[in-house]
Amino acid sequence: MAPPQRNETGKTGIGESLGSRARTRGGISRRSLLAGLGALGAAGTVGVAGCSRVAETGEGSESLLERLRAQGTARVGIAGEVPYGYIDRNGELTGEAPEIAKVIFKRLGVENVVPVPTEFGSLIPGLRSQQFDVVSAGMYITPQRCERVIFSDPEYVMLDAFIVRKGNPKGLNNYRDIVEKGARMASGTAYAEIDYAVAAGVPRDDILVLPDQVAGLAAVEQGRVDVFAGTSLTVRQVVRGSARAEATEPFQPVVDGEPAIGAGGFAFRPTSTDLRDAFNRELRKLKRSGELLEIVKPFGFTEDEMTDLTAKELCS
């Protein structure tokens, strides 16, 4: 989330006040995944293509939430990352973020949620160009991203982990290990793990950037890199069944001496405050009732990943 934290630009340091409040704990083939994405992406825009680039609302005009209620459909941007937002083997939209979105949009009077698949690095540009209405991909909330979009409060917090060869022969357990042992590293497009590694001293130009965690697993298995960095859930799920690779234990990234909090939320266009605020109200209800944990449990999330952090804290 990750989602790829995944970050297009800049550093991702967050202060101690957030670190003390965040509670954390220490497959599917690429071909079938992309095939499903393409099929659902085309189907998902049917019936709503005519309004895909309608100008955002101004004072006194119909709000985005009102428009979504009228058309009965919300388009969500996903990046094909298990377990955050993806198309399953049956061609259905799922993942922790889409399943939350389905519940909340229904409560807001929007019956249908359709996916618009894209690469992770294209989620914010796609949102801003109105290709979809919300990013539903477990995207980490960072100050840099908050300059371009507005976020809901986070639905989870997450640690990082590595994909390494079986037995972890180079003993790679955190970003400093990569530097000290001269290991070859890869991560995903726009993943925040790239910035975490750079903050630890890994030269940015030495990091191999791959499309996703499936490509990362292949790169490690084939010996092209020693390590692929991602979120702990992403890494743990993608190595299942691999005979040549494994996941390391989750660890807390550190940037400038502070814990870098990986907290994922839903992203909206800056003018979509009505939709974001209504979405947030329902998300908070899910948190208070315990329903949120029940929705995300099937995707490997536990009580340890639940959080009461806010987008305002993470954006600052």
Question: What does this protein structure show overall?
Answer:
By secondary structure, the protein is an alpha/beta fold. The protein is 35% helix and 19% strand. The chain has 13 helices and 15 strands. It has helices at 16-21, 30-44, 64-71, 96-107, 123-128, 143-146, 175-180, 192-200, 213-221, 232-238, 273-289, 291-296, 311-315; strands spanning 73-78, 86-87, 93-94, 112-117, 134-140, 150-151, 156-158, 160-165, 185-188, 208-210, 227-231, 245-247, 254-255, 258-259, 262-268. Strands 1, 4, 5, 6, 7 and 15 form a six-stranded mixed β-sheet that branches. A five-stranded mixed β-sheet has the order 10-9-11-8-12, with helices on both faces. Strands 2-3 form a two-stranded antiparallel sheet. A hairpin with a 2-residue loop joins strand 13 (254-255) and strand 14. Mean pLDDT is 85; it is low at 3-60.
Distance between the termini: 20 Å
**What radius of gyration results from the CA coordinates?**
19 Å
Strand residue percentage? 15-25%
Shape: globular
Low-confidence stretches: 3-60
Number of helices: 13
Helix content: 25-40%
Mean pLDDT figure: 85
What is the quaternary state of this protein? single chain
Describe the secondary-structure layout.
Layout: H1 16-21, H2 30-44, H3 64-71, E1 73-78, E2 86-87, E3 93-94, H4 96-107, E4 112-117, H5 123-128, E5 134-140, H6 143-146, E6 150-151, E7 156-158, E8 160-165, H7 175-180, E9 185-188, H8 192-200, E10 208-210, H9 213-221, E11 227-231, H10 232-238, E12 245-247, E13 254-255, E14 258-259, E15 262-268, H11 273-289, H12 291-296, H13 311-315
Parallel strand pairs: 1-4, 1-5, 9-10, 9-11
Antiparallel strand pairs: 2-3, 5-15, 6-15, 7-15, 8-11, 8-12, 13-14
